[in-house]
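F-box only protein 25 structure dump, as promised
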Amino acid sequence: MPFLGQDWRSPGWRWIKTEDGWKRCEPCSSEFEDENNQLNNNIGHAVILNNDEDIYSAEDCEFASKKRKKDHFRNTAKSQCFYREKWIYVHKESTKERHGYCTLGEAFNRLDFSSAIQDIRRFNYVVKLLQLIAKSQLTSLSGAAQKNYFNILDKIVRKVLEDQYNPRLIKDLLQDLSSTLCSLIRGVGKSVLVGNINIWICRLETILLWQQQLSNLQMTKQVNNGLTLSDLPLHMLNNILYRFSDGWDIITLGQVTPTLYMLSEDRQLWKKLCQYHFTEKQFCRHLILSEKGLIDWKLMYFALKKYYPIKEQYGDTLHFCRHCSILFWKDTGHPCTASDPDSCFMPVSPQHFIDLFKF
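structure tokens r here:
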């Protein structure tokens, strides 16, 4: 049976499920088509002259027109491609209905991470995912996905410089990314990198510039005559510290005032943190005692962190539907055909996202 689409090679029309039934989506590239048609008209009415004021032939005009359109598209397509659906079907082998398989780069382009970084609940999740890709999966991305990766990274750095939100997390990401690029450019060679080697050298220089900008970042002191963190009672401040799941966040908050520093050094606080992330069997392998013969839970936490992974907490994550094999953001949803969709959903950690596309 032939495909019902504009091109016999295409997978057909895109459909969305509504209350009135399934409706066909309009092509997402209409804006680009209108823009290209307008550009065609502008170029078609233009007369191209050389230094001797001779008019080019029709073929030369057509070639120049195509080249200008291509350059114009490259300059205006800095952001990622727009997709109407914010979900992707994850298939690892060919079936009668679908041929080929889903790649990491395709999923990275389809799931709209560019908009996800604007949501504070998803920001840390996306940054952690970018960090994992930088460590081991950068060369598995396609050229378009790599371009999208660095465009999103540019937006993240700009957001951190403007909002001063969690710069430590971005510094770790850039450090891992620069180390990976240095090893690929110098040690492995350009054979594993998509594109010209000079592009990657330019990207590495951009990363070094971002690192310098983040190092020179100065936190602006907000002037507020209302209630401040120091005005809260001790039990509330202590309750805030117990909510943190990262030891570095506790240390950073303890540097604000002497009172917070005293609360951040509480042994019980660090003991609870160790018990949350690690097991008793892991404690026994790396016991650290203080001068008084007591367990130094603070040093224990950072020692155990080197050997074992810590539990990750995110405000919002991607979800995977076991019934439909679809990866999606929960608030946007997907066209699920299960009788009880919520029972089929499972949250996807950044590492699980990477593992889904390993073959």
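Residues 28-33, 39-61, 75-82 have pLDDT under 50 and may be disordered.
lmk if u need the other ones
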